[in-house]
Amino acid sequence: MLGACASPPKNERETGNGGTLVRYSSSQVAVDLTDAEQQSLRAMRDHAYANVTRDRTMDAVAKVLGDLGFAPVSVDRDSGLVEAEHNATLVPKWRQLLRGALKSYTSIFPAKADHERVAAIVTVRAGDDGGATIVRTRFDGTVWDSNGDSRTKTLLQPELYDDFFSKVSKALSPAADKDGAPK
Predict the structure, then answer these.
(1) CA angle 63, 68, 70 (to 5 degrees)
(2) So what CATH class is 29-176?
(3) How far is residue 153's CA from residue 134's CA, in Å, rounded to a whole number?
(4) Which residues of 1-14 are buried (b: 16+ CB within 10 A; e: fewer)?
(5) Are 60 and 75 in contact (CB under 8 A)?
(6) d(C-alpha 69, C-alpha 173), whole Å
(7) In this predicted model, what pLDDT tens digit does every residue of 9-22 receive, in sequence order?
């Protein structure tokens, strides 16, 4: 009954506040992972690739991210960091325009998600034993609603990480070399 007065969950941080009594801007919330979620992420974020160089692995990671629709893709060979983003509109333009027009006359419409950005943060480093290259990946998602408010959280869907690592493996396979994959 008094849900609006309740404090947010402990793992949510408000990183920007658009006002409470008078709304003058948008609000931003970052959701930190719980201990259980951190454990889940640790189980799916790393993959080792044997007998490939760090540079070749970075090229394969960049190619796979590009093929998955991430753009721009930036590669920093000095630090072993590959970063990319994928943006998607969640509702058609006509619906956004109609909703905006109706909201300008009345405020009875609740905010709805309308845009999503997924950021890929990938590090590539030589393994401790020197025989394998280690790839660590994290996908962070930010969803904006029709009020401009945003919510950011690390994505924990195993299929997202499995698909990414599977495609990197294919890009690094000897058969991929013949098909024009990065060497």
Answers:
(1) 80
(2) alpha beta
(3) 24
(4) eeeeeeeeeeeeee
(5) no
(6) 21
(7) 787 777 767 656 55
Nearest Cα to Cα of residue 174 among 166, 165, 183, 163: 183
Q: pLDDT digit string (tens) for 138-173?
A: 999 999 887 778 889 999 999 999 999 999 999 998
Averaged pLDDT, 95-115: 69
Name the residue with tokens 């034993």: 129
Domain regions of the chain by residue span? 29-176
116 pairs with which residues across the strands? 88, 143
